[in-house]
Amino acid sequence: MTSSMKILYASAEVVPFAKTGGLADVAGALPKVLAAQGHDVRVVLPRYGSIDGEKFGLRPVTPTFRIPHGNETIEIRIEASDAIPGVTTYFIRDDYLYDREGLYGQADDDHRFVAYSRAILEMLPHLGWMPDVINCNDWHTGLVPVYLKTLYAARPGYANIATLYTIHNLAYQGHFSPHILELAGLPRELFTWDKLEFYGGFNFMKAGLIYADALSTVSETYAEEIQTPEFGERLDGVLTYRKDDLYGILNGIDYHEWSPATDTFIPAHFSADDLAGKARDKALLQQAMGLPDEPDTALFGIVSRLSSQKGLDLLEAVLPPMLEELPMQVVILGTGDAHYHAMLERLAAAHPDKLAIALKFDNALAHRIYAASDFFLMPSRYEPCGLGQLISLAYGTIPVVRATGGLADTVKEFTGRGKGNGFVFTDYTPEALTEAIIRALKCYLDIKGCWNKIVQNAFACDFSWESSAKKYVKVYKAAMKKLEKMAAA
Ligand code: ADP
Q1: What distance in angstroms lies between residue 103's CA and the mean position of ligand 1's atoms?
Q2: Which CATH number goes with the domain that contains 370?
Q3: Which residues, listed in sequence order, are joined to residue 424 by a DSSP beta bridge?
Q4: Is-contact 50 96, C-beta < 8 A?
Q5: Number of domains in the chain
Q6: CB of 366 closer than 6 angstroms to any ligand 1 atom
Q7: Is the Cβ atom of 311 under 6 angstroms away from ligand 1?
Q8: How far is CA 5 from CA 59, 63, 182, in A?
Q9: For 371-421, how does the pLDDT look when each residue is reduced to its tens digit (9 = 90+)?
Q10: Predicted local confidence at residue 183, as pLDDT
Q11: What is the domain extent for residue 340?
Q12: What is the model's pTM?
């Protein structure tokens, strides 16, 4: 084993405590694997009101203490849970800021995440534990690298903490007015184009990208894509400037959580060798969702945020003719833009035998859809990594995806030679998506040939975290080296 590191993993959402999307899955799985590989790993997130303190055995681990916040100080305390095996998870508790319904999208998110970043650093002496590296994630933690290089640089114990800043989705940047400087207690001189200023405002994501020792994102293809204007979300210049410190490391999935042989959310278990349970899950899902339980009709599942990033505008164009003409059923679980809710409600009412929808966030139903479907649709406009396609493969459910970001890295078109695990299209057009679906349906009808083979290929895929976790450790070491080099310069 390589030498053990002390790693603090800072994420605004973490499975099993709080989740809105893939970031939570990663934050719940990667630290656990790093710990199993011998590292001292701890996780930190805000203590949201929705977190069940009793269920997760939360206990206070520090007395209350005050941290600076704008012109005042605020009182926080740290709680901890051992719910993630081998990992201590810390919760920043300030009921005024975090005891709310929902995780983000509050009017005072600026206050909430400035305080979160500050508290991460302020809690360390109270815990008596200084990490070698802090792995920051997405805009909520963008200030941590800034603080370490400025206000905290000369404080005892902080100079040797390296940072890796991981981008899970470049589009969510935390863009606010310059008042963040005062709130965060940062000097006005930092508000220049090459540091914290961004089109006249303050951008948490850019702050992290400029100040962290190393940067990463969640697939190799996305690491390349974000250096171009098309995917760069106005930060491609910064990312190109830092390209030598930017790494792409593919996400894995937690096969303890996503396994057809043990999944507690699905009615019938199954495996690559015995698919009877999958057929039963399909029939039961069809019944539960009000669809005719036809075993031979191809069932397409979607579990997704309903946004244009996820290709909902393509689906809007493609679903009406497809539901009219093709022998298929579609089940959609998701929440998001009101426009897409209305569109799906209209379509489901018009095609009750072919389209069933559940417009909500429902983890148990998500498991059932991954297990029961024949195909999983992800026609994303862009996709940093994507977890849905990895989860579906674990259940022998064949992904139909657009070749972008992590989808391009993990799903390969099935070929006549029997290789490949899905169906892939490139152009972001209704025609290209329709053609991919037609190729998928043709394969589905060739039960003994193509279909048998592709399902086995899907089960054979391995996207477990072990190898990616080792790559993270290498990048943590690169970040520490970079910090040393900067200190020596
Ligand atoms: P995102 O961009 O939303 O993070 P990912 O594919 O990386 O996309 O991860 C999405 C995660 O959230 C997956 O675990 C998926 O199953 C889950 N998910 C998305 N929407 C829902 C929903 N409505 N109900 C339950 N789980 C959902």
Answers
A1: 15
A2: 3.40.50.2000
A3: 401
A4: no
A5: 2
A6: yes
A7: no
A8: 25, 27, 34
A9: 999 999 999 999 999 999 999 999 999 999 999 999 999 999 999 789 999
A10: 98
A11: 276-462
A12: 0.94
